[in-house]
């Protein structure tokens, strides 16, 4: 993780990352006239990043331009990423950022893009590790050191979530996911309890147990809580993340080419809620947060649950299993039912739940829907605009729920072939009485190619979005 800290003096020897709002501000940077003019010519051509190589010293400049606030922030992040990649390509390990414009959020966005863009997952590569950017000093009068530290803490949580998603099941089964949550809890200051198979059986979590039947590894149920004494909310915000550490589809084996290659990412929802509560605790947000992550893997072993089976869930409802690859909603349903005891003000579910969500909007954002009041959705939308972790809200009409009626059980785990992302959300809504916001992150959670600072593989999507929501909830009081 890139280390970022404030400093008071610029260094004429270090590579520079500069953000400004007016080209004339470049005069305050110690540059030769020809070098400055070269950068200005690039900025006239609307270059996202103007670059000048001064005898091996890189000076890179991003100019803030017009447009909506969300776009300005995102362009700054993308510029920070581009600058970090140039430095990494030049094998630099240290550089300095200079904020010459007066908007601290835009300077922080540039740093955020650099920090997230410098991420790499190399722990299983032998030999010397590739050189990467390690330290970044910041000179900017208008940026508070505390805000820099908050940004760093959130980026660290995103990178921790990325690590979890990128780790293969050979090194991260359900029990090990619980152990990683415990490590983060100890480091960040939130409490963690992990239920084992016997405790899960005692709770009657029929969905989680059924999904895990074909596996040689036991399931886990991870319970996390951040409860500061100065919490502004009397009822907690409940985060529930899908923790399928690997998904073959079970007996409904995934049939399409390459469909299993990235299924280590099916626990990205759990990684997101673990990262979000970690960031909230580390930044000491005055918000009571509970996070639940049911964890298992779904395999077609000898005892695997089968299409046609009827499952008795934690809530007491019975579910007809029509497709063993629609397993994520089954483990989330048990978690939602368990979560009723917390009497949450708002419940979030995060899951790589449906291919239908990807087909609907691609990898550019998250599908969302639910029963929560408009003010909660408005706060989510504002958080999405700020972080550029965009959300697309789906209708939640009663007719979608009618598709889940079963002839032999209380409901079935599959709707029709249409709008599968919504019927999946309707299924989850049956297992909580609290205001629900469901986030289907199947599109942006794991990328086949890099998208600026969203690196190839696990992106950590959801961490920044949830943290921003919790931060706004703290300010709302």
Summarize the amount of helix as a percent range: 25-40%
Strand % is 15-25%
Oligomer: single chain
Instruction: Give the tally of structural domains.
Output: 2
Q: CATH superfamily of the largest domain, called what?
A: Zn peptidases
Shape: elongated
Question: What distance lies between the first and last C-alpha atoms, to the nearest angstrom?
Answer: 33 Å
CATH class of the largest domain: Alpha Beta
Main structural class: alpha/beta
* Global mean pLDDT: 96
Largest sheet, described in full? Answer: 9 strands, mixed
Task: Examine the coordinates and then state which fold CATH places here, giving the name of the CATH topology of the largest domain.
Answer: Aminopeptidase
Strand segment count: 20
Q: What count of helical segments does DSSP give?
A: 14
The low-pLDDT segments are none
CATH architecture of the largest domain: 3-Layer(aba) Sandwich
Structure description:
This protein has 477 residues and is an alpha/beta fold. It folds into two domains: 3-141, 3-Layer(aba) Sandwich (Leucine Aminopeptidase, subunit E, domain 1), CATH 3.40.220; 154-476, Aminopeptidase (3-Layer(aba) Sandwich), CATH 3.40.630. Helices cover 37% and strands 20% of the residues. The strands form four sheets. Strands 7, 8, 9, 10, 11, 14, 15, 16 and 18 form a nine-stranded mixed β-sheet that branches. Strands 1-6-5-2-4-3 form a six-stranded mixed β-sheet, sandwiched between helices. The chain has a three-stranded mixed β-sheet with strand order 12-13-17. Helix 2 (69-89) packs across helix 3 (104-117) and helix 9 (328-339) runs parallel beside helix 13 (420-429). The two termini are 33 Å apart. The mean pLDDT is 96.
């Amino acid at each position: 993780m890139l280390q970022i800290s404030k400093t008071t003096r610029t260094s004429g020897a270090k590579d520079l990352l500069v953000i400004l709002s007016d080209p004339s501000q470049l005069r305050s940077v110690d540059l030769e006239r020809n070098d400055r003019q070269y950068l200005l010519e690039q900025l006239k051509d609307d270059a996202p990043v103007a670059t000048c190589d001064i005898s091996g010293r890189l000076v890179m400049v991003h100019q803030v331009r017009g447009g909506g606030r969300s776009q300005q922030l995102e362009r700054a992040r993308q510029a920070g990423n581009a600058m970090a990649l140039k430095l990494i390509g030049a094998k630099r390990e240290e550089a300095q950022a200079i904020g010459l414009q007066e908007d601290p959020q835009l300077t922080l966005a540039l740093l955020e893009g650099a920090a997230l863009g410098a991420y790499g997952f190399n722990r299983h590569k032998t030999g010397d590790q590739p050189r990467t950017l390690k330290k970044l000093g910041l000179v900017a009068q208008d940026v508070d050191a505390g805000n820099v530290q908050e940004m760093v803490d959130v980026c660290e949580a995103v990178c921790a979530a990325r690590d979890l998603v990128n780790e293969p099941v050979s090194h991260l089964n359900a029990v090990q996911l619980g152990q990683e949550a415990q490590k983060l809890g100890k480091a960040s200051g939130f409490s963690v309890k992990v239920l084992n198979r016997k405790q899960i059986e005692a709770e009657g979590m029929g969905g989680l147990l059924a999904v895990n039947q074909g596996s040689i590894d036991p399931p886990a149920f991870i319970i996390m809580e951040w409860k500061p004494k100065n919490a502004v909310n009397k009822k907690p915000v409940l985060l529930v993340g899908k923790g399928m550490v690997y998904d073959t589809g079970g007996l409904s084996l995934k049939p399409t080419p390459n469909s299993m290659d990235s299924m280590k990412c099916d626990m990205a929802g759990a990684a997101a809620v673990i990262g979000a509560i970690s960031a909230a605790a580390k930044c000491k947000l005055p918000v009571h947060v509970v996070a639940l992550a049911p964890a298992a893997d779904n395999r077609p072993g000898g005892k695997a649950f089968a299409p046609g089976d009827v499952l008795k869930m934690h809530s007491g409802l019975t579910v007809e299993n029509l497709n063993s690859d629609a397993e994520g909603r089954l483990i989330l349903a048990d978690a939602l039912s368990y979560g009723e005891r917390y009497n949450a003000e708002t419940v979030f579910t995060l899951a790589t739940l449906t291919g239908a969500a990807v087909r609907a909007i691609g990898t550019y954002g998250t599908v969302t829907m639910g029963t929560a009041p408009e003010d909660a959705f408005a706060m989510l939308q504002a958080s999405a605009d700020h972080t550029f972790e965009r959300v697309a809200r789906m209708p939640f009409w009663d007719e979608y729920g009618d598709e889940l009626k079963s002839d032999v059980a209380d409901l079935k785990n599959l709707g029709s072939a249409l709008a599968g992302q919504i019927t999946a959300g309707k299924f989850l809504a049956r297992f909580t009485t609290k205001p629900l916001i469901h986030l289907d992150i199947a599109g942006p959670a794991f990328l086949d190619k890099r998208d600026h600072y969203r690196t190839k593989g696990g992106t950590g999507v959801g961490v920044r979005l949830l943290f921003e929501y919790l931060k706004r909830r703290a300010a709302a009081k």
